[in-house]
Amino acid sequence: MSTDLIDPTTASVPAVVGIRKSGKQWKHPKAPFKPGSTTTSTAPSAKKQSKTYLARQSLRLQSSLTKLKEKELKAEKEAERNARIQSIKDKRAAKEEKERYEKLAVKMHAKRVERLKRREKRNKLLKER
Fold first, then answer.
1. Biased composition, Basic residues: where in the chain (predicted)?
2. CA torsion, points 39, 41, 47, 48, in degrees to nearest 10?
3. How far is CA 111 from CA 105, 107, 116, 118, 123, in A?
4. From CA 60, how far away is CA 54, in angstroms rounded?
């Protein structure tokens, strides 16, 4: 067991990087790509995050308003379409009803004419007696 005390100031300092294996010592070492951490030394991270959060909130609000408007327009368009379809159906039904009544009138007229002919025939026979 070692009784060496670790100095907290030297423990946090990273180790010195040695010679690179690729042989490109003139290249600067890159930090890992972390898209979530967008901090800069000039701007405090809290302010930047709040700005981005506010920007996202406003974008969400705008998109939700746009979606609401689109839904409203689609519903209005669908209602107009349904009204047009319903008017066409009503016109067709009225036309069919009219044709049915005309056929019925022709049929009833024929029956009435036949009935009148029979009556005339009967009257003629009665007169001849």
1. 21-31
2. -40
3. 10, 6, 9, 11, 18
4. 10
